[in-house]
Amino acid sequence: MSAIEALYIFDEHNNLILNHTYIGRPPPPSTLLPLYLQHASPRPSLIYLPTTNPPTLLYSMIQDNLLFFSPLSSDTEPLLVLEFLHRVADALEEFLGSPLLASKITANYDVVAQVIAEIADGGVPCQGEANALRDVVETGPGVLNNLLGKVGLPGGSAPGLQGGPSGRLHTPPLRPAETAQGSAVPWRRSNVRHTSNELYVDLVETLSVTLAPSGRPLSAFAYGSIAFTSKVSGVPDLLLSLSTGGKGGGMGNRGDQLRSVIERVVFHPCVRLNRWNSDGVLSFVPPDGRFALCGYEVDLLGPDAPLTAGKTAANNLNLPAMVEITTGLGSSGSDFEVRMTQPSSSSSRAGSAAAASLQSNLGSGSRPGSFRAGSGGGESKGSALENLTVRVPLPAGVRNISDMRPSKGEAHWNPADGSVEWKVPSKDFGPAGVVLRCTVQGPLSDADEAGGMLNGVTATTYDYTDDEPATYQSQHDSDSTAGGTNGAQDNSRTRAQKNRALMPTSTTLSFSIKGWLASGLKVESLLVDTKKSRGLGPEVKPYKGVKYLTVSRDGIEVRC
Amino acid sequence: MESISRISSLLETARDLTLEAARDAGPRKPSRPLPVPQIKKLLDSRTERDVLDGLRRVISMQYANPPQPTLTFFPAVLKTLSTPYPSTRPLVYNYLIHHAEQDPDTALLSINTIQKSLSDSNPRVRAMALKTMSGIRIPMISQIVSLAVKKGVSDLSPLVRKAAALACVKCIRLDDTTRPQVEEYLATLLLDKQYYVAGAAVQAFIEVCPERLDLIHPAYRRLCKMVVDMDEWGQLALIRLMTVYARKCFPRRTKRARRAQTREEKEKGFYEDLEPKDEEEAGYDDVEVTDPDLVLFLTSIQPLLQSRNSAVIVAVTRAYLYLSPTTHLLHATGPLIALLRSPQDIQQVALHNILQVCLNDPSQFVPYLLHFLIRSTEPPQIRGLKFELLTLIFPHSGKECQDLILAELEHFSHSHDADLVGESVRAIGRCAQASLARTSRRCLSLLLKQIHSADSNLVGEAIEVIRHLIQRSPNEHRKTVIRLAKNLDTLTSSSARASIIWLVGEFVGTEGEDSIAADVLRILVKGYAAEADEVRAQIILLAAKVYLGFCNTRNAASKKSATDSRSVEEESYEQMDDANNNGDFNGDALAGDEPTHPIELLYNYTMLLARYTPSYDLRDRARLYRALLAVPTSTELASLILWAPKPVPVAQSPGEARRKFLLGSAGLIVGAGGLQGTYTLPEWVGEGEEPDSKLRDEGEEAREYVPVAGRDKVVSAGSRLDEALGADAVRAKNKSLDDWLDEESEGESEETEEEEEEESSGEEESGSEEESEEESEEEGDERSGLVR
C-alpha cells in the first residue's frame, strides 16, 4: 500500500537515464513522460493518470535538472513519495557528488543500483539516511577509488580537503569485522576515520519579502537552514549554540530568546529535542559528511508588527538593497522606471565588499569553542553583495520593449517568459542607487498607433477599435469644451489607458550576500563533548568554520 | 526542511555546470562497451578487480537505455558468488534479483549458496542474503523464504531482524499461502526491543495484514514509546496504523462533568445543599474522556512535529485531526505552516492538507495570515490554494487582517492574468458571503468599484459575483441594482450587461409600479441592434417580465373593480384580449388600432425586434414568451415560469468538494475518488465493543520476565503462537495475571464501573471537572506503576 513501485530518472533533455522497477508492473516511462509533458509548466508534483493501465498516480520532482518519476497505482501518502524522491536525490548526491549530473549516473550504474535497492527494500522505504548507506553500498576496493574519487569531489568546493582521506568515496573499504554489528547511531556510518578533523557550519537564509506599493513591508520572512559538515573521527558528540545578536532580548534565558526569534524549527533526527526545549542549544551526534541539521524561519517584522496601519518602513528590515518601481511615465504612459537603492542603514556594510574572510577560523586558537572573530567587529563588515538582479515580469500583451536605459549594469528583455532582467554588478551599485527605464510596446492589433509612435509622429491617428465607453464618457466631459482639441486629448487618454494594461504590477529583486544573515543569527560556539564522544582523542581539536549566507531568489517582491 | 542537496546548490551557486560535466566525462566514462565474450572472461577471472569490473559492465548494460541483453551472463555471474570477495556480492545479488524471473531455473542454482550465507558470521552478509533471497521472484521457493525469515526473526543481530521484517512483505507477495506463518513472525517482530526493527515490523504489518489489530495490543504501549526513535518511514507507518487502531479500540466516551461554577453558584450550593437535583442539570457538560492509552499515543507523537520529514508532520496532524481535534490539533498548526518553506513540489501538497485542516477550524490559522500572501512568482496551483485559505480565514480575523486580505485580493484583481483576476474576484465574493453584513458591504463596494475598470474580463467577473451577492438578500440591494442599471450606459462587457439586465428583471415582480425596469427596457431597446446575442436574450426576457408585471397589476386592479362594476369592464377587456391575440400575429395592423399602455407597446416592439433577430435561439425564446403571455388575463403560468424563485447561489469554497478525502491522502490532492487502495478511517468503536484494555498490559509483562533481548525473542515467539491459536488462551492467561496482581485488578475496575463511580462522585461531592479528571489520571498512574 505504501510501497514504491518504480523509480525513473530523466536527464534535462527528457532522455531516460535510469529505470528501476521495485515491484509490480508499473506503466513504462515511455508512456508516462508524454502524459506528464502535456501539463503546462510548472507541472504539478502529483498527477493522476486514469488512462494508463493500471491507473497511475504520477509523482515527480526536479533536482539539478534531473527529472525524478515515481508512478504508483494505489493511494499513498503523497508526501511520503515526494520525500522519498528527495532522499533518493540526496543519497545519489552523497555517493556521486554534487551537483547530480546525468553523466555521473550513467557512469556509475553499479553504485546507483545499490543505492536505489538499499534505500527501499522491495519498494518499502527503509533507509532515509544517505550516510548510513555507506555501510551497505560497496563502492569497490582501492583500485576504483581513484576513478570514483575524481567524480566524487566537486571541484573547487573545498580545495583544502582533497588531500585527506576525508572526502567522499575515499573511505577505505569496509572490513567485515568492523561493520559487523552496524553503527550504534542509525544515521552515522560506522568506523569513521579522518586524519584532519573538521567541522563546518553553514547558515543559509532565503528571503521572502513582500512590499506594498507604498514601500511598507506586508510580510517579511527569512527561511533559514543550517547545513553542517562533519569530518570527525569516531562518534563525536557536539553542542552548537546560536545567539540571536540582540534580538528577542528580555525574554528570559537564552533558549527562550532564541526560540522567540527562530520559529517553527524542524530538526534532523540526530538533534536531541530535550536539550533544545530546555536550554535552546543543539546537541547531537552528527552523521558523517554533509547534512541538513535544522530548518527554521524568522519573521523579520517581529511578532507584533501592525498589519496595516503604522509606518514600518522597509528600512527596518536592514536589507542591503531595495527596489522601487514607477509605472505609467512618459507622454503616453508607456514607460516604467525601476530604481534600486541602498537603504542608508546598510550602506556601510556593502562598502567593504572586498573583505573575503568568510570563514572565521575558530577553535584552533585561544579558547576552544569560541569563534575568533575573523573579520573584526562583526560579520556585517565582511559581507559581499553578489548577483544583484532585478526581474520585472510584464503582461502577456507586451510585444516588445522598445527602449531600455539602465544607468548601470545590463538589462535585457526575455520574450519567452515575458520579463525584463536587469543585472547590476555589485561594484557599480553605490549609495546613489541605479535606475532602469523601459518603454513597452503593445500588441500588434493596434499597430497603426505603435507605428505612429515609432515614427515620431505625434498622435494624429484615430483609433477605430476604441471602446465605446471612453468616447461616450469623453463626449459627456467635453460637451462644454471646444471640439478642436477633443480628438487629440481623447486619443492620448485612451492610449494611456491602454498602456496601463501593459504596465508591470510587480518586480522582484534577487541577490546573495555572504557573511550576513537577515535574522542577525550567529553561531556562538561549537563544542565537542569529549566525555560523551567516542573514538576521538582528547588532544584532537577539530578545525571549525562557519559561513553565513543570505539569498534572495526573486524573494523581494515590490508591488505597484 | 529543504533537502541538503538544495541547500548546497544555494551555497555553491557559482559552480559551472558545463565545466563540471566536461571534467566529469573524464576518467569513469570510457567504460567502452566490450564484446560479450570478453566480459565473460572478466567474470571468470580470478582477480577481484577483474571480476568486479566485469560485474560493473554487466550492471551498466542492464540499466542502460535502451537496455542491452544481459541474460546470457547469468551462469557466469552466478559462478562469481563462490569468490570470497565481499565487494562483488551486492552486484551479483542485484543481477540475480533483476533476472530471476526471466530464467528461474538458473536462478534456483544460486539458492543453495545464498542459504549458506544466511548463517555467515557477519550479520550484514546474513541480512543481505535474506534480503536477496526474499527478493527473488520465483513462487516455488516461498517455503524456503519463509523458513529463512523465521530464522532471521530470531537472529541476534537487529540488522538481520530488520531485514526479516521487510522480507515478510516480499514473502507474502511471492505466495499468499505463507500468510499465517508470516503473521506469526510479524507478531514476534512487533515486540522487538530494537526500535528500528519494530519500525520495520510496523511497515511490514501495514503492508501484510493491517486488519490483524489483535497483534498490536501487546505491543501498543511499547511502540508508542519507541516512535520517537524510529526512522521516518517507521514513524509514518506507525502513525497510520495507530490512527486506525485508536478508532477501533478506544470508544469515544463522554463524561458528564460539572461545569466550572461561578462563585454565586458555589455559595448557593453551599447553603442550599438539599435543592432538587434536576435544577442543577444545566451545570453539567459533556466532556470527552480520552483513554490513557490513547493519550499516551497522542503525546508520544507530539515531538515528531519537529521532524524534517513533511510526511511525518502531516501524518501527526491527521492523527490529531481525526482522534482529538479539540485538544491536540492546535500543536500541529505551526509545523504545518513550516511546510510552506519546503520545495515547491512538497509545498503544493502541503497546502492542500493545510486547506483541509483549515476547513475544519479556520480560526487557528489566523495568526499565520502573512504566510498565505500570494507572490507573483508562484505557479497558479499554489496561488489558487492560497486564495482559498485567505477567504476561509477572512470571517475569523480582525478588522486589520480583513483590510489586508481585501487589499491583497484587490491587488490581484488588477493583474494581467485573466485566471488570476477571476480567482481573486471570486475570492472577494466568497469573503463577502461568509462575513457579517458590514464587512459584506465593504466587499460589495470594492466590487462595485471594479465595474469601471477598463479590463472587461475583470468587470464580467465582478458583476457575476455581485449578482450572486444581490441574489442572496434581494431586499437590501434595491439601491444597488439601480446603481448597476445606471452603469448600463457605459459598460461594454456583454456578460456584465447581461447579468445586470437579468438582475433588473428579477426585481420587476417585487417592486411593482416603482420599478425602473420599464425605463431600463426602453433605453435598451433603442440599442438592441448593437447588442451581443447574450444581451439581446436578456432584453427579451426583461421585456417579458415587465409585461408580465404590468398584466398582473392590471388583473389585480380589475379584480378589485370587478366586484364593484362588472358588466362594462369585462366586455372591454374581452375586446382587448381579442385585440391582443390578433396583435401577436399581426401586430403591425393593430398597433395603430388601439391606443394601449406604453408598456404594451414596448413589449410588442421588443417581440417584433426579436422576431427579426438572426439567432433562431432568440426567435424561439421570443415565441415562447409570446405564447406564454398571449392572454393577458391569465398570467399564472407565465408568473410561475418567469418569476420562479431562483435558488440562492452559494459560491462554495473549492476545497469543500474535497472534504470527504482523508487528510494526507493522494485523493485529496488530485481530487479524484475511487483511487485504488484508498484507505478510510473506521468509525469510532461503540462503547462496550472495544477490545479489553488489559490486552495491552501484556506486552509489558513479557518484557518483565525476560530482560535479555535474545531470549525475549524466543519466549515471546512462543507466547505469540499461543495467542494466535485463539483468544481464549489469552483470556486465560490474563486471568492468571489478574490473580497474581489481584490488587491491581481491584483498582482497575471495569470501564463502566469507573464511569458510574465518577458520575456518582460528581453528583455527590460536587467535584469540578478537573478534579475528576485528575482522579482518573491518578488511577492510571497507579495502574501503570503496579504493572511495572
Automatic annotation (TrEMBL), chain B:
Region annotated Disordered, chain positions? 559-590, 684-704, 720-788
Pfam families found in the cross-reference section: Adaptin_N
Q: Which InterPro entries match?
A: AP3_beta (IPR026740), AP_beta (IPR026739), ARM-like (IPR011989), ARM-type_fold (IPR016024), Clathrin/coatomer_adapt-like_N (IPR002553)
Q: Which domain of life is it from?
A: Eukaryota
Q: Where is the composition biased (Acidic residues)?
A: 739-781
UniProt subcellular location: Endomembrane system
Q: What Gene3D superfamilies would the database entry show?
A: Leucine-rich Repeat Variant
Gene Ontology terms describing biological process: intracellular protein transport; vesicle-mediated transport
The biased composition feature labelled Low complexity covers 578-590
Which keywords are on file for this protein? Membrane, Protein transport, Transport
Please report the stretch or stretches of sequence annotated as the Clathrin/coatomer adaptor adaptin-like N-terminal domain: 38-629
- Family as reported in the entry's similarity comment: Belongs to the adaptor complexes large subunit family.
* Protein name in UniProt: Clathrin/coatomer adaptor adaptin-like N-terminal domain-containing protein
For this protein's source organism, the top of the classification is: Eukaryota, Fungi, Dikarya, Ascomycota, Pezizomycotina
